[in-house]
Amino acid sequence: MVFSASVSAFGYDVAVAADCGSTASPGLDWSECSKKSIIIPGSNLEGANLTGTDFNATDLANSNLTSANFEKASLMRASLAGAKAENANFSRVEAYRSSFTGISADGASFASAEFQRADFSGASLKKANFEKAELGRANFQKAALADARFFLANLSRADLTGAAIGGKPVFEGAFMFRTRIEGLDLSAAQGLQQSQIDLACGDTSTKLPAGLSTPGSWPCTAD
Q1: For residue 5, is pLDDT > 50?
Q2: Per-residue CA distances from 215 to 85, 146, 203 (Å)
């Protein structure tokens, strides 16, 4: 058993232990447990406490992760493809080379997380928060990113081609070295500066906010 939290009962603090041996179920506590390299697709972990849990190389595809708390969890090379994760908390996770393809994670938080080479293609990430996230070479092709927040995120060499950038997404302070934005409508994007656009990779069909101009370096050469 791993002691992970405390609750108040009749004015006293009572220790609550994570039940690492339990099977997947809504609202369970697997905090700080080792659940690495297991195959549990289609699990129902809605509202579960998964803080600090080791899910490295684990298959959680098509699971219900709605409102689950993954803060500081390890998800390297894990699969959450096709999962439902609306309003889930993925802040400060480590998820290098993990698959989030087709995930439905509207309103989820990915703040200050490590997602180098992660695959978010086809994902629904409306109003998702990627503030200060590491997204180097992450794949967002054909993702829904309306009102997503990339404040101070590292989007170096990330691929956003074909993404639906609706609403007023925030890119203030984002590092966009060779970020693929070909064909995107960024006209309503918030916080974009010419210096960011000059580093990014767009084309003549990329729409920019008023006051910004298409760099002469576009389109970029292949990496």
Answers
A1: no
A2: 38, 25, 9
pLDDT tens profile 19-39: 999 999 999 999 999 999 999
Question: In angstroms, how far apart are the furthest CA atoms of the chain?
Answer: 68
Residue 189 one-letter amino acid: A
187, two tokens: 């006209």
SS3 at position 53? coil
Q: Which residues pair with 64 in a beta bridge?
A: 44, 84
pLDDT at 8: 40
Structure tokens of 44? Answer: 């129902």
> Which amino acid would we find at residue 222?
A
**Structural Rg of the chain based on CA atoms:** 19
* Spatial distance between the Cα atoms of 151 and 131, rounded to a whole number of angstroms: 5
What's the CA gap between 176 and 207, in Å, rounded?
16
Write the CB contacts of 100 (distance below 8 Å, at least 6 apart in sequence). Answer: 80, 81, 83, 118, 119, 120, 123
Q: What share of the chain is helix, strand, coil (3-state, %, to 5)?
A: 5, 20, 75
The residue type at 108: A
The pLDDT tens digits for 72-109 are 999 999 999 999 999 999 999 999 999 999 999 999 99
Give the C-alpha separation, 58 to 13, whole Å.
Answer: 34
Tokens 């690492």 belong to residue: 20
